[in-house]
Amino acid sequence: MEEFALLAVAGVLIIVLVSLFAPKLGVAAPILLVIVGIGCSLIPGAPRILLEPEWILMIALPPILYSAAVNVPITDFRRDLETISALSVLLVIASAFATGWLIWWVLPDIGFAAAVALGAVISPPDAVAATSIGKKLGLPPRLVMILEGEGLVNDATALVMLRTAIAATAGSITFWGAIGDFVYAVIASVAVGMLIGALTVGARSRIRQQPVLTTAISLTVPFLAYMPAENLHASGVIAVVAAGLVTGHQAPKRFSAVDRITDRTNWRTIQLLLENGVFLLMGFEITSIVADAESSGRGLWMAVALAAACTVILFGVRILFVVPLIARLRARQRRIPEVAEHLDAALEAVAEDDQEANPRRAARLHRWRADAQFQATHSLGWRGGAVLAWSGMRGAVTLAAAQSLPSDIPYRTELILIAFTVAIITLVAQGGTLPLLIRVLGIKGTSEEAEGREVTRLAEEIVAARRAFLDNQALLRENGRPFAPEVLERTRSRGLAVTEALAAMVNDDDPDGQAQQHRELRRQLVDVEQSVLLDARAGGTYSSHTLRRAQHFIDEESTRMA
């Protein structure tokens, strides 16, 4: 036990070091962690590690998916739901059957159902490496959103297919039964996830000024969604994603600023350790899997060659799928001006009929008009399609699902090796060359000028709302008395300065500009404050309660500058 505890500590330190130095080396952290894991496994005396698949599927996967889903803007997810669904459902099914047929053709003894089961294992791409590379190189936000959305949902499709294919090996399921099971899994999982998300958000919003308690509830949400869904024979993965989307969407309205800051920090830390830990483990386990395949005596290189062939099939199927998908999106793009014209006419008609008389229809039309504007300004062309086609790296689910294959399946050791080899080939080959592809294609995200205009426009709306609120004659304190005029005027001045600083911060790219100098000066002042507080703490002349309050104030000021 002590040995594994030391390994866990060493793993955390390795993850931190690799995450720190990977950007400087120009390599995505997941790729480097796989290589480091392989190197660590070759150290003389290194222990043999073959983690039970339940540890990843039930303990690691729910927090990983939840931490990603809770940070996904639900509006952007909804706008590309059709594209995300096609990639995460139809593409996974097509990839599973294509690679399953190849495996069955080479290894007919395992049966077609078992071959499709392995195809399901290697079909879902992991978006971690792709999105980390894409965000660093400035891919368009819409393309990153599609990759993240695909990574959230495709795991569920693969795991449901795996479960169905394993049942088919025993002859206990029919084709229509499989379709029914899939539909049931989706509907039941979404219902469970949304219910858990709504209940936990409601409970946390009622706990005021106690971030420790709300954090404790937050850490249980992925498992509260995952376990009931699995017990209902639905998809725990979809339930976790639904709970995360609901929580992320409700957080700005229901949670305090302190709760949101704490949540972001905690879940980013959990996501960093679990996601990267899986890639480190993947590299560490591969040597043990290779040793098992060699000891079986049934052809190590046959398994590696079959894995390479499956990788080619997966890449080919993804290209054949992405091409018509991009063509459809471009065709829709050409119809946007006509759609926008009809929506503008409908909005004018609603305005003439008084929007207050039909607020739901007006809100719906405004949302559709905003969606059309988004599609027009964030088009996804063929260069984006090339990145989408090349972003097919495998990861955590492939690692865990491969080891969950039934022990009585023929060639089980070789099948696990095939899955691991596919994951490593796609991660190193595609993930390693993705930055070069992005640079060669010259894909750029939203321009800083356009982003600056958006921030300025939002800042103006905030200023207008603040002024309207403060100028309201009915504005009263909690005790029913009016605010002092001096307080109102000081609040007006301070609010305007803060909002103008927000716009200046985004628009000022000059490292010697006044906004940058102002931030540097504020940081240095915070350092001075912290130094004085440390001296006071060392002197022992102030009570711990006073020191703690002063520390909280300085921390909050420092957070506002982050």
Brief rundown of the structure:
The protein has 562 residues and is mainly alpha-helical.
Write structural notes for this entry.
- The chain is mainly alpha-helical.
- Helices cover 81% and strands 0% of the residues.
- It has 21 helices and no strands.
- The chain has helices at residues 2-25, 29-41, 53-69, 74-79, 81-106, 112-122, 127-137, 141-169, 175-205, 211-231, 236-254, 257-296, 300-352, 359-377, 382-390, 396-403, 412-441, 448-470, 485-507, 514-539, 544-560.
- Helix 3 (53-69) runs antiparallel to helix 12 and helix 10 packs antiparallel against helix 11.
- The two termini are 40 Å apart.
Principal-axis shape:
globular
If you compute it from the alpha carbons, what radius of gyration comes out, rounded to the nearest whole angstrom? Answer: 27 Å
The largest β sheet comes out as: none
The helicity comes to over 70%
H/E topology pattern: HHHHHHHHHHHHHHHHHHHHH
The beta-strand count equals 0
Helix count, per DSSP?
21
- Unreliable stretches covering 5 or more consecutive residues: none
Estimated share of beta-strand residues: under 5%
Helix/sheet category = mainly alpha
Keywords: Cell membrane, Ion transport, Membrane, Sodium, Sodium transport, Transmembrane, Transmembrane helix, Transport
Protein name: Cation:proton antiporter
Subcellular location: Cell membrane
InterPro entries: Cation/H_exchanger_CPA1 (IPR018422), Cation/H_exchanger_TM (IPR006153)
Secondary-structure map:
Layout lengths: L1 H24 L3 H13 L11 H17 L4 H6 L1 H26 L5 H11 L4 H11 L3 H29 L5 H31 L5 H21 L4 H19 L2 H40 L3 H53 L6 H19 L4 H9 L5 H8 L8 H30 L6 H23 L14 H23 L6 H26 L4 H17 L2
